Structure formats: structure tokens, C-alpha cells
Amino acid sequence: CNFCEKRFNASYDLKRHLMSHTGDKPYSCVFCEKSYSQNGTLKEHLRVHTNEKPYSCGFCEKKFKANSALKRHLMIHTGEKPYSCVFCKKSFSQTGNLKEHLRVHTNEKPYSCGFCEKKFKANSALKRHLMIHTGEKPYSCVFCGKSFSQNGTLIKHLRVHTNEKPYSCEYCGMRFNHNTSLKTHLKIHTGEKTYSCVLCEKKFNSNTEMKGHLMTHPGQKSYACEFCEK
């Protein structure tokens, strides 16, 4: 190659490579205005329009438009994780997952909210956050019709109807709807008291207990008038 030092066995390979320097894109899409330097890349792009999926997974029924997408998917079945974190020992099947994980260590937050100043490590976290501003609630309860912005919040809410209690106490066997309820309960067994009274030195297992205790101090009144300061 006259532009770089690369060498090729075949004249065809050299011609194809030269297009990366000249910017020549002779292969055009008949559906949109996109052009490509290689015919193979055009063929792969056309599947966006035709939805053709010629690459099939041998383990499940999934099909893919690109061979590279199939290769990434196969790692789910084979358990292969070639991408390793340089900070810890975690490995990942996809380079995108590794990049997202690295932000746990670097604290990089490349995704910014257009409504407020919050930043996020993952695009999925930004999308969830945006629903707070847009008011979008795509997750609906099948029992009462209540809607939620996040699927996790819907799952928690469903337990009100199903009475499912997936969190159990290792000390007494009591079960709870939410992990937060279990954590509060565990303090009864461990004796941990994380909530302190600001007026005296007493400590409590829960914030509710602490607030109730505050009312025992003279001058503490929990209910305020919204029209005056009483």
C-alpha cells in the first residue's frame, strides 16, 4: 500500500484496503442513502431493512443478522469470557459489558441527563432515570392497574397482591416482602442500632422507632399546619 506499510498476497485485497484511505464507497444501499467500501458490509447492512437472519444458534432457536452477533451470543451457552477486568478478576463474554464494568472502578459517568445535572455509568441507568422527568410508566400491575417507571419497582409492588416473601431471616425464619424489611428485622437479632436521637444519646433499630422516641422530648410536635407555623 502506498499510504501505509501494509502488504497483501492478492491484488484484490490491496484494492479493497485502498478504499479505507481514499474514502471510496462504491456499494450503495437501495433502501437508504448509506454507502460502503466493501460489498460484504453492504450485504450485512441490507439485513437491517430486510430483517433477514441467516445465522442460527446451534444451542437455541435464536437467529442473527450478522455472524459477529452470533459469535457473541454463543458465549452465553459456552460460558466463554475472554474479556477480563484489569482492576479485579471479573471476566465478561462481551467487550461492551467489560467497558460498563470498568466504570465501577474508574467512576466514569459518560451518560448525562438533559433535564438535570445527573450523570450515569450506563445508558440503561440513564434511560430509567429519564422516566422520572418524562413521567413515563411503562410497567403496569395486572391486579390493580398501577403503573411504574421501573420494572424492579413493579416486581416489589406485585408482592402486595401475591403476598410473596422471598427474603427470609437466617436467625428465626421469618419471611419478608422486601429486602429492606429483612435488613431492619435482622437488627433485632444482631443488636445493631444505627438510628440515633439528636436530642439524647439513645439509639434505635429503625428510623420509625427513633421518630416515635423524639416525640417523648418536650416541645416536639410531629404535625405541622400547612397554612401557618403552628
Automatic annotation (TrEMBL):
<keyword id="KW-0804">Transcription</keyword>
<feature type="domain" description="C2H2-type">
    <location>
        <begin position="195"/>
        <end position="222"/>
    </location>
</feature>
<keyword id="KW-0863">Zinc-finger</keyword>
<keyword id="KW-0862">Zinc</keyword>
<feature type="domain" description="C2H2-type">
    <location>
        <begin position="55"/>
        <end position="82"/>
    </location>
</feature>
<feature type="domain" description="C2H2-type">
    <location>
        <begin position="167"/>
        <end position="194"/>
    </location>
</feature>
<dbReference type="GO" id="GO:0002682">
    <property type="term" value="P:regulation of immune system process"/>
</dbReference>
<dbReference type="Pfam" id="PF12874">
    <property type="entry name" value="zf-met"/>
</dbReference>
<dbReference type="GO" id="GO:0001227">
    <property type="term" value="F:DNA-binding transcription repressor activity, RNA polymerase II-specific"/>
</dbReference>
<feature type="domain" description="C2H2-type">
    <location>
        <begin position="83"/>
        <end position="110"/>
    </location>
</feature>
<dbReference type="GO" id="GO:0008270">
    <property type="term" value="F:zinc ion binding"/>
</dbReference>
<dbReference type="InterPro" id="IPR013087">
    <property type="entry name" value="Znf_C2H2_type"/>
</dbReference>
<dbReference type="GO" id="GO:0005654">
    <property type="term" value="C:nucleoplasm"/>
</dbReference>
<keyword id="KW-0238">DNA-binding</keyword>
<dbReference type="Pfam" id="PF00096">
    <property type="entry name" value="zf-C2H2"/>
</dbReference>
<keyword id="KW-0479">Metal-binding</keyword>
<keyword id="KW-0677">Repeat</keyword>
<dbReference type="GO" id="GO:0000978">
    <property type="term" value="F:RNA polymerase II cis-regulatory region sequence-specific DNA binding"/>
</dbReference>
<feature type="domain" description="C2H2-type">
    <location>
        <begin position="111"/>
        <end position="138"/>
    </location>
</feature>
<dbReference type="InterPro" id="IPR036236">
    <property type="entry name" value="Znf_C2H2_sf"/>
</dbReference>
<comment type="function">
    <text>May be involved in transcriptional regulation.</text>
</comment>
<keyword id="KW-0805">Transcription regulation</keyword>
<keyword id="KW-0539">Nucleus</keyword>
<dbReference type="GO" id="GO:0001817">
    <property type="term" value="P:regulation of cytokine production"/>
</dbReference>
<comment type="similarity">
    <text>Belongs to the krueppel C2H2-type zinc-finger protein family.</text>
</comment>
<feature type="domain" description="C2H2-type">
    <location>
        <begin position="139"/>
        <end position="166"/>
    </location>
</feature>
<feature type="domain" description="C2H2-type">
    <location>
        <begin position="1"/>
        <end position="26"/>
    </location>
</feature>
<feature type="domain" description="C2H2-type">
    <location>
        <begin position="27"/>
        <end position="54"/>
    </location>
</feature>
<protein>
    <recommendedName>
        <fullName>C2H2-type domain-containing protein</fullName>
    </recommendedName>
</protein>
